[in-house]
Structure formats: C-alpha cells, structure tokens
C-alpha cells in the first residue's frame, strides 16, 4: 500500500509539476488541479442544485446593475485580449506555430495573454450565477453548463502546459466572439426591446457556430502537418471538444431558429382603464414586446393579436 501511495505521489509530481510550464506553475489557479476542480465543483453544485433550491420560494433578484457592470467588464477584457492576441499573431505562422518556452518579451507576452484569457473563462461562470439569481432556470441548459465548464478545464490545460503557440487561435477567435456576445447582453439590459428581436439572437448564435468551425479547422490542420513542433497530442483533446461544441450549437440553432416550436401566445395580465386596455403578451414564455402586436378584444376570454406583416393570432386571457 505504501508503495502504491509513493508511486501515486511521484506520478502526481511528474504530471502536475515536472511537465508543467515553469513560468506559470506557481500562478493562481494554475497547475494544481484540485484548485480548479474545487472551484468547478462549487459552481456546478450551486447552479444545478443549491441555487435553484434556494431560489425556489424567493422572488427573482433584480441584478441589472450588477449585470451591466459585469458585461461592460467582459466587453473590455475580451476586447483587450483580442487586440493583444492580434498583435502577437502578427508574428505567428497560421497553421503551425510552436510554443516559445523562452523568457523573451514576445514569449512572456503570449503567456500573460493566455493567463488573462484563462481568467476570463473563470469570469464566464458568473453568467450562470446570474441565471440562478434571476430564476432563469431554463437557460441553465446542458449546452450552457458544459460549454462554460469545458472551457475552464481546457484553458487550464493551456496555461499550465501550453501557454502560447498554435493553440492561441482559440483565445483569439473566442475573445472576439465574446466581445460581440457580451455587447449584445449589455444592450438587452440597457435597451430591453433588443432581446425581443429574434434576429439578433440568431446572429450571435451564427457567430458562435462560425467560431467553433474555425477552431476545428485550425486545430485539425495539425493532423496534416506531421513535422510541426507543436505537440500533436493536443489535437486529441481540443479537436473532439470543439467538434462536440460545434454539433451542440448547430443542433441548438436548428431547433431554435429553423424548426421553431409552434408559437404559443398567452396574455399574462390585462388592465382596463376606461376604453383603453394595457396588455402584456408573452410568446413561448418570453415577452413579445408591445410594438410587435396590435391587440383587439374579441370577448371576455379571447384577444385578437395582429402581428405586423404577419397573420392574425388569437390568445386566451
């Protein structure tokens, strides 16, 4: 038993110390796997179990101000990472860039950008916490949770073992996508009518799909460059992950925007004020927006909704 423990400790030191990049293995939440696993474990426990249970009999929190600050931070952080990564990529070869393990200025800059990108993936987890606090449990999907968790784990591996080189393309592309995504989220809070437009949601999803396609092509290109000095084993980890994410996002896109479920319009509340009637209509549990429908009362139990440039729809009161 003692020999087994000794070998296990030796193997642990080899994998999580000897094989790691000495420039980063002493940094916060890098190299030591238990730190990240504890953090992700707490995240998953809260968003999947504790949070929903805690919020069950509570009203949703109004966290709009926090979300505005959070989204602004993410936009600027991701924009900074993208700009800095773009500068570094000016010296990179597109389809085969080995990792520079030296202490040169360019090499250390790549390391710092990779670490900053890793921190941004940790900050992404807060997005799900906001869903819990706002009781938006339907948005805590497998795709959402898997994506956030998987990205933290992958980029942990990147900053621990491979900070720089060919794999930085993932951070470059993803940071640009997140500038767009968090800008959209910010707009939906500041200008709520934006979130009622399915068009913008569709565009954001399309950009995300393009992102994973580009990552698949770029990482997969290593398969066809046998003499590339970048570690080829990375392909066995990053390529399946990006392919899986591509499939998940395409599936989401098809179900949401191509094979849309039949629209179910429901009036949640009505208020009569003389001859005027204020009506809140929701479509598939999301508010349709006051400007999208002309509403006429047919009788005490039915309303006629005339959608602009579309057919008439009825909904029950």
UniProtKB/TrEMBL annotation:
The keyword Chloroplast does not apply. Keywords: Fatty acid biosynthesis, Fatty acid metabolism, Lipid biosynthesis, Lipid metabolism, Membrane, Transferase, Transmembrane, Transmembrane helix. It catalyses: a very-long-chain acyl-CoA + malonyl-CoA + H(+) = a very-long-chain 3-oxoacyl-CoA + CO2 + CoA. It is found in: Membrane. GO terms for biological process: fatty acid elongation, monounsaturated fatty acid; fatty acid elongation, polyunsaturated fatty acid; fatty acid elongation, saturated fatty acid; sphingolipid biosynthetic process; very long-chain fatty acid biosynthetic process. The chain crosses the membrane at residues 34-51, 63-83, 115-133, 145-164, 170-191, 203-225, 231-254. Its main location: membrane. GO terms for molecular function: fatty acid elongase activity. It is a multi-pass membrane protein. Its EC number is 2.3.1.199. GO terms for cellular component: endoplasmic reticulum membrane. Belongs to the ELO family. This is Elongation of very long chain fatty acids protein. It comes from Brenthis ino (lesser marbled fritillary).
